[in-house]
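[Discussion] Sanity-checking designs against the backbone

I'm trying to build intuition for which residues belong where. Below is a structure token string of 137 positions. I'd appreciate it if someone posts a full sequence so I can compare it with mine line by line.
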């Protein structure tokens, strides 16, 4: 599987999981700006108020997200380093606001070791997804 396709699938999975857990993908500042635009009046009463800014991206592809979620559950987790890599990968896509060094500290590895573990988990996830995909003729 090409890495850009795997990256797209992981980002889709992260958005799907965040939106499913009552996480609003809109900043509070954007909400305030939109309310001001809706409820404020211009200098002239006849002036039309601009439409609110939209920060929406296309909805996540649920079928792809479920495939990734199932594949994620198949990642090995017996060894400590496997669990650390899986946890880092999960954190980076489900909580993109967490910095990588912070996530590495949470699982008690250096950032260099964390990159290695996360890349190993990402490759394994790609292999699992490749083995599940239907054959192309």
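Best answer:
Here's mine. Compare freely.
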């Amino acid at each position: 599987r090409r890495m850009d396709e795997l990256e797209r699938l992981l980002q889709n999975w992260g958005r799907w999981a965040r939106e499913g857990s009552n996480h609003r993908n809109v900043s509070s500042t954007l909400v305030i700006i939109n309310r001001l635009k809706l409820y404020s009046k211009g200098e002239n009463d006849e002036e039309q108020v601009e439409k609110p800014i939209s920060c929406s991206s296309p909805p996540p592809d649920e079928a792809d997200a479920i495939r990734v979620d199932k594949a994620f559950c198949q990642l090995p987790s017996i060894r400590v380093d496997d669990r650390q890599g899986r946890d880092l990968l999960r954190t980076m896509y489900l909580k993109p606001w967490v910095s990588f060094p912070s996530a590495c500290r949470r699982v008690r590895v250096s950032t260099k070791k964390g990159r290695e573990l996360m890349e190993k988990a990402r490759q394994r996830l790609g292999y699992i997804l490749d083995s599940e995909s239907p054959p192309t003729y």
